[in-house]
Amino acid sequence: MVGKVAQERYDELVAQSKVLVETERETLFKLGDNALEVEPLQAKGGSRPSAHEDVQSVEETLRRFADDVGMCIGTLMNYRLTAAHWPSEHRVVGVSIEIHRILMGHPDRFELIRKPPFNRRYGKHRWTEDAAKRARGWQVHNPVSVQEKVTAIHGLAADDQVAAQVAADLLRRPAVADEVPAQARVEAIRDLSRDERVAAEAATGLLHRPDVAFKAMSDDRARQSVNHAQVERGRQAREEFEQSSDLAPAIRRFERTAEFLDLVGACHTFVATTHRVVPGLRGRTVCEDEKAVLGENIARVRAALEWIEHAVETGEVDMDEALARLLRGE
Predict the structure, then answer these.
(1) Distance between CA atoms of 140 and 152, rounded to whole angstroms?
(2) Model's pTM, two decimal places?
(3) Residue of 32, 34, 193, 298 with fewest CB within 10 Å of its CB?
(4) Is residue 119 within 8 Å of 125, Cβ to Cβ?
């Protein structure tokens, strides 16, 4: 059985239908030939009239012809153009006018149409509309290869809102996400996080994962950015407090005293630690790498001490960008 009929009856119906299809093909080509006779194309086979002809009069004539024979002007123009590109001696029996239309722009169409591709579904060489579209590099109706399916998805997701929803849904499938290269995923996340609010929310969620936070803080630039953000957040909170709280003046006086004590304590701690550690270097050879590291840190300490002296003498605590970078270890 094939569908609701026996194989024998199915074969009879196919044979009858082939005759009908071939009759229709000849009829449609004849309609195109007739329209072509009424209004020929340019000598080179273009779709526009010759230079000396009036475009409006050509369209009016063909519209009248279409109305007189009882069909749509667009359909008639389609048959006319196809017939013009396929002289009768090059038309292939058994191949529909639609396939002729698809292939008419191919430079080797006369040879190509006589070499139909192998169709696995039917187990023989034959033209289908999708096969003709593949030959032209067009998007097919029933995609088979990975690239054809990707092209089809791109076509359906031309709208940005649709594309965003499709991407989000697909990336929620673990098997799909695993197939995306790591760098491509990183770039996609970066592109999707251009909005500051989205980026902040995503970063917060990711940093709640201990392994992610550990790896992120292993990056010097990321760690410095986080430290800078913490300092900046503290500064903003302090400014807001000083502007809005009645207790700010009293707290400010206390902070001056506390800051003085903190500085004295920091100096005492540094001197005490130095006094304890430096004697331990007696008899030890310091390698070049260690010297370099110590040199960088000594420069930072020296710069910090000079900054303290300047602040005490002048009351100015601002630092230039070079000093800020040095103290941050950049």
Answers:
(1) 8
(2) 0.46
(3) 298
(4) yes
The number of beta carbons lying within 10 Å of the beta carbon of residue 64 is 12
Place of tokens 């080797």: 108
Whether 82 contacts 32, CB under 8 Å: yes
State how far the Cα of 75 lies from the Cα of 63, in Å rounded to an integer.
11
Site of tokens 């609701």:
4
Six-digit token string for 268 = 């005492």
User: Is the Cα dihedral 138, 139, 142, 148 positive or negative?
Assistant: positive
Q: Of 123, 89, 122, 82, whose CA–CA distance to 104 is shortest?
A: 82
Segment 35-69, tens digit of pLDDT: 988 888 865 444 455 555 555 588 888 899 999 98
Residue whose pair of structure tokens reads 């990336």 in the numeric block: 171
Give the helix ranges, DSSP H, for 5-145: 7-38, 55-69, 73-85, 97-103, 109-112, 129-136
pLDDT at 247 over 70: no
